[in-house]
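Field: COMPLEX_INPUT
Field: COMPONENT_COUNT = two
Field: RESIDUE_TOTAL = 1652
Field: MODE = joint
Values follow.
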Amino acid sequence: MGRITKQQKKQTDQDETATVPLAAVDAWWRAANYLSVGQIYLLDDPLLEHPLTVDDTKPRLLGHWGTTPGLNFIWAHLNKQIVERDADVIYLAGPGHGGPGVVANAWLDGTYSELFHHIPMDAKGMGRLFRQFSFPGGIPSHAAPETPGSINEGGELGYSLVHAYGAVLDNPGLIAACVVGDGEAETATLATSWHLNKFVNPVTDGTVLPILHLNGYKIANPTILARIPQDELAALFTGYGYSPRFVEGGFDGEDPMAVHERFAAVLATALDDIAEIREAAAAASADGSEVARPAWPMIVMRTPKGWTGPKEVDGLPVENTWRAHQVPLAGLRDNPEHLRQLQEWMESYRPHELFDEQGRPAAALDPNRPKGDRRMSANPHANGGLLLKALDLPPLDDLAIDVSEGRGTIAEPTRVLGKWLRDVMVANPDDFRLFGPDEVASNRLDAVYEVTDKEWEGEVLPVDEHLAPRGRVIEMLSENLAQGLLEGYLLTGRHGLFTSYEAFIHVVDSMFNQYAKWLESSAEVEWRRPVSSFTYLLSSHVWRQDHNGFSHQDPGFLDHVVNKQASVVRVYLPPDANTLLVTAEHCFATRDYVNVIVAGKQPGPTLLSLEEARAHGARGLSVWEWAGTEVEGLEPDVVIAAAGDIPTLEAMAAVQILAKEIPDLRIRFVNVVDLMRLQDEREHPHGLSSDAFDEVFTKDKPVIFAFHGYPSLIHRLTYRRTNHANIHVRGFKERGTTTTPFDMLMLNDLDRFRLVMDVVQRVPSLRVAYAGFSQRMEDERIAHRAYTRAHGEDPADVAGVAGLPFALELPDQPTEDDTGADNAPH
Amino acid sequence: MGRITKQQKKQTDQDETATVPLAAVDAWWRAANYLSVGQIYLLDDPLLEHPLTVDDTKPRLLGHWGTTPGLNFIWAHLNKQIVERDADVIYLAGPGHGGPGVVANAWLDGTYSELFHHIPMDAKGMGRLFRQFSFPGGIPSHAAPETPGSINEGGELGYSLVHAYGAVLDNPGLIAACVVGDGEAETATLATSWHLNKFVNPVTDGTVLPILHLNGYKIANPTILARIPQDELAALFTGYGYSPRFVEGGFDGEDPMAVHERFAAVLATALDDIAEIREAAAAASADGSEVARPAWPMIVMRTPKGWTGPKEVDGLPVENTWRAHQVPLAGLRDNPEHLRQLQEWMESYRPHELFDEQGRPAAALDPNRPKGDRRMSANPHANGGLLLKALDLPPLDDLAIDVSEGRGTIAEPTRVLGKWLRDVMVANPDDFRLFGPDEVASNRLDAVYEVTDKEWEGEVLPVDEHLAPRGRVIEMLSENLAQGLLEGYLLTGRHGLFTSYEAFIHVVDSMFNQYAKWLESSAEVEWRRPVSSFTYLLSSHVWRQDHNGFSHQDPGFLDHVVNKQASVVRVYLPPDANTLLVTAEHCFATRDYVNVIVAGKQPGPTLLSLEEARAHGARGLSVWEWAGTEVEGLEPDVVIAAAGDIPTLEAMAAVQILAKEIPDLRIRFVNVVDLMRLQDEREHPHGLSSDAFDEVFTKDKPVIFAFHGYPSLIHRLTYRRTNHANIHVRGFKERGTTTTPFDMLMLNDLDRFRLVMDVVQRVPSLRVAYAGFSQRMEDERIAHRAYTRAHGEDPADVAGVAGLPFALELPDQPTEDDTGADNAPH
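Field: COMPLEX_OUTPUT
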């Protein structure tokens, strides 16, 4: 269903009843324009039954007109093609402030009234539709989660095209019609998104039809693409690998019907060409071969900004200038002439032809209205939760690292995870994907290549490995594109993972922001169904970027993430391979969250059995009796806590040193995998209750906390805790250089010796008695640094895993009741 | 000086002594390659005086070879052109991990030894050069601040081209040769950077010569641009507005001399064409006209990745594959064959021809070495502090808002600042620029257009305003480009300002990170001279984005910024127009910082006279006696503090309400303009001492803090303060929607009524006695919200500025000794 073949096309050509007359397209367009102007301006009298008065208009005019007529024009024409071809099309509005247009079309579709019962398809509904727009308690002026049919927020510009590409992956019947604004086309992400045509397969994926709208102007400037010659523009899109087609019209008062004719022809040809390309590819595929990367059609549409709006206001040109960007007519309260012009403008659409006396869309529009799910505002792909199937999650048991002979089996956590991702791909062959900026192998997830390849429609040479025109992995050197593709893929009801180097994930800070806001807003929209969570795997993290140097060392994404609402963000720092496995398993089963997992790729000891890891993951944080020196029934003298793989090992090493030197010191060892457990339960759904927190961290004992990221984050999360003043955090201090793993820890005072000195300093009974010991620790550090500088590597006793303390001299005390299931956050 | 004219070119053609033979270019290239391999592999025996042993090699092999021979090749050829033309050229190495190459060339130039005396130009120096590379205490594997001649960090990819464009602005004699890696070309920022050719003027700006290096592979994948047909590639760069030229060579064992010949010819032609374009433009300019936007040359160079390295290792192809990306030969300790191959590889460069017995570069290289400042590693543009002139800062007095008739004169702060920026441009006509993503006018800085225009080399239409081929403002809808241009402009010794909407500045989070790290590292590099600070002006901020809705509401950039070292970050929240003026004046005089200024553009009351604003700015935070209800000699009952323009007004309104209702309540009012004053002096150079802080905020009184951003930031900054537990912060709670200004405040509990309720709740003596009053406040809030929802605007008594409390019923008590100059941070 939904595939458009030439055969189908021919049928519709022959079937006169299915041809939509351009008059209906034009009526639709005029109706959508009328409704858009109404939303921007009117509080009342939606059908203009009386001469407009100031009281009929909004006190604050906050909408934007400029881009809207173009968006409506394209929507109207796509409707015609959908009706004629029974095409499966979603619509992405790239330009900012396109809200009135897409909402108008959704109301004309009938979808709006179906989803929002208080806004029926009549004059009352129209009045409410107008009133709610950019009004307190109403809807925003961009396409947004509140907008039926939208998977792209129009606030922060630049992501429409990458969202469109994410949507069509593994959706062979789908066409994502993506209106790219010529303003947004200047953004960094949009500029590189055009290259995504090298990553879609013409048989197994759907098709993106980009429509670059040369609207001419941004807020206060012309756009670059509107001011370069057409041959340059044609060369640019040919160079990006497309087959560009140009339509221009509506200037100097040209009759819109002429523009309709030209655009309809170009759009029909583009869709015919798409069908032909797909047919050829399908035929080749049936013969077991693949076609060369096709030059997919794209359309460049040049129309006046603010088309059909006031030509002139106060003697200055408005239509086709930057003055049409926002509200062409302002100051209605003080300017009766503007009020008159508004009335004239709205009447120019001949509303009596478009709406009946009850305010219902007139029959003239009907031929141009697709039915049911074919309506772009109702297309289920744009409310992906409707189509979502839970992932089939394969068992972890065979992949988990065995620690039955003793803790410490060496494993590379992400490599182990890679094997599970491989199994996930096998179990879910068409709705799970992995995205990354050239770092899937570097982050050691390459086991996935046992069962799939990297999608690549370009040339493949004999030396290449795992490149193929069909693959479940997409790698392009742009974090923005990996982020945007996964967003588009999730919002259309599928699952996936984005893996990146930790430091460079800040490239997508703003995209994360906007996606988190999308989820936060979606939660308030009743008809939006939950989608699979967005999960980041950040590896090649700060503590093992010693060799790459300062530019590669930044753990601050976590700080950024926790600014967003607690209802949508989750942060995990699994300390070993088995805990990483259970964390990923958990994250893939969640909905509507952003999960951030930080995990190492370097060989490290496996500390927990799979069962223990499950319990630890479910608890989120646990006391590890076996790693501490507590005595049952007695309060500890000090708590050593850790979050993050490397900090956990350093903290364990510190316990080991202390246990040798001060055997009767009672150390409680706490590991935190779910960072949000630290927060108060009133602030985050995963937060521990005050009592539970106090039970673990005590009410008054010193807590030395070894943390993966910037120390302030731990203070921030534990700010309301009883024992907060006693929590002393060591973490990244923004001290970086090109050095060795252990030297990086020393540089930031997160090494075992420093942690030991911290304990001596903070436990009052030790301060004086162990001053000499503390000095020895300091001497050790100096000696270590001198060795490192001389030899270029860490001394053997702290290097890599060799010096780590799990070759356990400490008693192993696995807790039996440590299932924690009833305590599990989600 | 430094302009290359055709005439000069002809002279050098005729002057045989200035022609550099290709043999010298090749010798230079081989020497640079030899030194690069040596850096990656060797600890000792730099001249291979004995057969290599394992002990001669580094224990950890952390360098990257793949991109290096290409970088060296281009450097060698640019040297030839510089010598022959006396050209003024800087070199930007875009590909990652190009460190060994650029360092090798700097050493061959002689610059390295001049700047680092412990690394002389002999065998001893060469040994140290090798050892320090990617070694603890040494230098990173990317071009970095430590690299002579570099203004571009090679760690996070994608910024080379925008840095190059920033560098050539207002540097008409300069050519920025920018090697763009085909990996980095996939990044978002790089993809849109090509369009910057529309913003450079051929007379008043210099020229960027992009050299796209089709090296073929990233870490684990081919690159897109290397795998599209050459006609597509040609179309792409034609479409971007360039005149592309192609050179390919070195494949299948081709003699490098043949490639030298081809590349030398293409490079010479490109430089000739640049000269010709500039000459024509200069001639037109002399006639008072401007040439049409030229199609500037760019070069596409396709050579094998890891060229001249091992062809095969362990039976697998390496040269010209992704396997050449990092170290082609690894595991030297366990593999004598690899060690042998390394020796063979290094000897293949015929080092005895390249270095004399003392290890000094041989005379064969001399013809290809430019002299003095013409050496690309020594070019002063790449150490911009050398060229920096302090800005001539015009007086503020005539622009400052007059409050002599009483506080509260209404002004739009950024509009007032715009007038000063105009004056700054007049006073500094060729080294100050303003960058923004289409928001200079929207942020109300448009007074600058009284004296300048927006630079625009595209078509200009009659309807356009302030567009011209020469202008001091550059606007393109990409925060990444505004950021990168200003970085390039500052690092070459000039001044500027980047203005953006607050929410979308997160788009450049990662670029900010990398620039802050650049400054942090530069501070450790003795020969790097201080550059002008990078100053952000964030307007259209979270509290006045009520109409644009949730996607436009995010104050989190401040949290991001304070993660970086205290030595480089400064954050200012001026509460009114006059304080904004003095803050900007201060920031423009600083060096080597990142200054972030958040200020509103909406009309608001001016609270301080210019003199008071100066004192307040110098103090960073002050008690405003006139805005509180303190009684001299008595401790206050409560402190109300505010940071940010809107929070300051709300806090003042709260004081006013309290003063009426509870006349004997002693309220201290504190305003914070320099946020880092809150931090402890041990953590930030601007931090207040503990005593000074306690004096202002008391040791034990409740503090109600109204903050512009996320509340956690205030807790974080005041974490070590005596009275920290009593600080109760109201700020943005990530609750946003499309609404009205006052409703936004209510939604986030930052409104005056909530602040009043907070005071009642926190001051023990009020809690019970004023419970009824508190309830009235709650009722007020409910009534306000109901009004807002009904009318679409705020009730008049809180809307805009009308309801604000500076129409002072409170006594105005200007402090006489409030100069604070000796207390001024910098």
